[in-house]
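Proteins fold reproducibly. Look at a sample protein:
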Amino acid sequence: MIDELIKISDQAEQAPNIEMSWKAARLMALYRLLLSFIIVLGYLYQPVGSLLGHDNSAVFFAVAIAYLVFGLYVVIANHLRWPSLKPQIYLHCIIDIIAIMVFMHTSGGLSSGIGVLFIVIVASIGALTQLRTAMVFAAATSLLVLGEHAYRVLGHGAAPSYFVQAGTLGATLFISALVFSVLAQRLRESERLAEKIGVDLENMGQLNDFIIQRMGAGVLVVDEKMHIRLMNEAARYLLGLSAKKGLPSLELISKPLADQLIRWFQDSNYDSTVFRVTGSVAIYPRFTRLGKEIYAGALIMLEDTSILDQQAQHMKMTALGRLTASVAHEIRNPLGAISHAGQLLEESANLDRADKRLTQIIREQSVRMNTIVENVMQLSRRDKSLPETIKLDCWLNDFLEEFARTHDVDPKKLGLDVSPPDVEIIFDPSHLHQILSNLCQNGIRHGGEHSGVNLLEIQAGKSRDVQGAFLDVIDCGPGIDAEMASQIFEPFFTTATKGTGLGLYIARELAEANQAHLDYVPIPTGGTCFRITFANNF
């Protein structure tokens, strides 16, 4: 198994070099075809008695035609890659050497200058094979050149001085084989290194893309024309976009963010501000210019400020929970004793009307104090959510019937509109019941004094402006002042004399435990709207 893996790894490493060798062999095949074509044309159109084939024109022409046909065959064989690379290289180079040797011999030997063509052949062998093989071909070619000239000197009385030229040509062949073999080896190593670097860069790019897509902060890259070039999943979520949606202009996605980016382009010292997307959380943008040009693009980092607020709130409530948990037991014991004594005192027959009023105050304040302790203890040990699939239409109808029955409210004064009616959410039913009970009680308490068709209006469904499903609880009261709207979810903040100030805070905490958001939505025409934006599970 290990040997197979090593073999596969070696094959993968050698693949770029093999492909490069095939490309070099293709160039040599084209060179061979062009050379043979030029030789044939040169022989046919040369003046009478010229250099090419003047010793034996019939043999020269026959070999030239055969070499041209062979050149065509080599091009086809290289295209089909049959036979394999090494047999092709060896066979073709041997044929090249034989053909050029015949051309040189039939054209007057070394004096014809055709022997220079050997340099290209030996150099190609050095580039396509190992140095040892190239040296063997260089040695064999040099011996053939020396032998051909020795034959001419011994048999035809040629001048011995051309031995110097033969030796020079042989030395040139060895140098060409050595230089091109070394250069080819360096080129293969560079190709292998470039391939490795390319793979590393591709892996690094994939890793960077994975990290960016999995970042908790939103990341956007826009060009100078406000077109989005990159957006991660966190940015899509914060801006309320679906995963299938493309990358349009920034102005089409978020006009407030685009306006802040334009101001920042105009003034790099511009301090960005928190903005809110409908149905989403508060977002704080940070801008960074990409490049030194004035009209370069920008990198936008989007931070969900609600996470920091939740962390600060969690730290505060954790400290409060530890404090109250240590004190609650000490409070409950005397509180229980006071409540029990008040009940016994209230049952006494000797109490007058004023004393009974005092015992009633004791009972009411004991109940209120116990409620405060229970709420604070609930914050310190909030139960985990047990989500279920809930069909909002049926569930809300049952809830409103129960709420009207237990709070003595006319069911006709409670409006319900679910569109589309088949909307489903994933939520803990007990948590949703507790949230809606709190919101509906607040709505009746603050809006009940004002006349209207309904005391409460509950609207639910899906909308293009809201990510996922939503649920609105709307009353007909006077609304909430803008100064108070930022504090209503703070623990222990209340405007009622008998309230604990924990209802809305607990409702938001329960919503967050189910990956939902509870927000206050101002209504310009009057009234109060609290919106639950559920996680986009369907």
Q: What stands out?
A: Residues 1-16 have pLDDT under 50 and may be disordered. The first strand starts at residue 218 and ends at 222. DSSP finds 15 helices and twelve strands in the chain. The CA atoms of residues 522 and 529 lie 7 Å apart.
